[in-house]
Automatic annotation (TrEMBL):
Source organism: Corythaeola cristata
Pfam name, any one: 7tm_1
Record bears the keyword Glycoprotein: yes
GO cellular component assignments: plasma membrane
UniProt subcellular location: Cell membrane
Residue intervals of the G-protein coupled receptors family 1 profile domain: 1-184
InterPro entries to which the protein is assigned, alphabetical: Bombsn_rcpt-like, GPCR_Rhodpsn, GPCR_Rhodpsn_7TM, NeuroB_rcpt
Membrane topology: Multi-pass membrane protein
Main location, first listed in the record: membrane
Name of the protein in its database record: NMBR protein
Length: 250
């Protein structure tokens, strides 16, 4: 997104597709490598709550040391939340800055069209900043609760409030993967219009095909009529000193 908006000419080079594929593969490889430690060191743990009830849970770190859960939760918070948030915040800030700057540098007179372009680019700048806010809101509660449990892993809070907060935090983290289209629908008039058109594609497509067929049929008939009219010409010839008027249909 950053290159497509800030440096659009860079993605049109011959090596752009190759580098994009390399980066995508690298992201998948790094993601799998980050998941390896949890799959290797995970173990079952028996934890007691305040009512002396025993729970069995899968813990993604060794239970031999009290520092393991704390280190694990802090690393997860840094690698999966704080560092990505810093990266997307920096890039989305530059995207928004570039959009606002380009809105003020639109050439030509200050017409109604240029005014709409300025408003559109400013609205896009707000949208990309909203994406950063959604990422933070969706993932922050889940990481905070995980760090809380990691620093208090010998006890379990069986209260209803803790259970509700855990469910809400988990649902929010899942919603981060699908919230962007909904944000675009409410913030972007163009996206909302095209989405509504696709949502009612069958009926509108049939109506458009019918209207197109009627329009084309009428156009063909009018073209044929004009062609016949043009092809009927009047020629004047002189035969034995007399003018002979003849209509010839070409």
């Amino acid at each position: 997104r950053y290159k497509a908006i800030v440096n659009p000419m860079d993605i049109q080079t011959s090596s752009a597709v190759l580098w994009t594929c390399v980066k995508a593969i690298a992201i998948w490889v790094i993601s799998m490598l980050l998941a390896v430690p949890e799959s290797v060191f995970s173990e079952l743990a028996h934890i007691n709550d305040t009512d002396n009830a025993t729970f069995t849970a899968c813990i993604p770190y060794p239970m031999t040391d009290d520092m393991h859960p704390k280190i694990h939760s802090v690393l997860i918070f840094l690698v999966y939340f704080l560092i990505p948030l810093a990266i997307i915040s920096i890039y989305y800030y530059h995207i928004a800055k570039s959009l606002i700057k380009s809105a003020h540098n639109i050439p030509g007179e200050y017409s109604e069209h240029s005014k709409r372009q300025m408003e559109t680019r400013k609205r896009l700048a707000k949208i990309v900043l909203v994406f950063v806010g959604f990422f933070a809101v969706c993932w922050f509660p889940n990481h905070v609760l995980y760090m809380y449990r990691s620093f208090n892993y010998n006890e379990i809070d069986p209260s209803t409030g803790h259970m509700v907060l855990t469910l809400v935090a988990r649902v929010l983290s899942f919603c981060n993967s699908c919230v962007n289209p909904f944000a675009l629908y409410f913030l972007s008039e163009s996206f909302r219009r095209h989405f509504n058109n696709q949502l009612c594609c069958r009926r509108k497509a049939q109506q458009e095909r019918s209207a197109s067929y009627l329009h084309n049929s009428s156009a063909i008939q009018m073209t044929s009529l004009k062609s016949n009219t043009r092809n009927t010409v009047t020629s004047m010839t002189q035969l034995n000193g007399h003018n002979l008027k003849q209509e010839v249909s070409l």
